Amino acid sequence: MAKTILIKPLITEKAELLSEEQNRYSFLVANDVNKIEIKKAVEDMYQVTVESVNTMIMPAKAKNRSTRSGIIMGRKSAYKKAVVTLTEGEEIDFYGDI
Known about the structure:
alpha+beta
């Protein structure tokens, strides 16, 4: 059974600024993977050369929402995020054929 390493790219305003200005891309990754596995997965999937990988575990958060019937309380799960720096001159195009 193949292990899923990269879950999805993170497309946020901050991530877009990082990719445009510093050639760094953000990904949501599995909680049990290390930097070497992330580097290999990005290089295999996007055919680019990875210079460095930074990882961080984002903590869970409590979320509240007011509705007509009352307040709904819940939690947003914790997740692991990887910020990948590519070598100069390379880029990843997430919006390929759009």
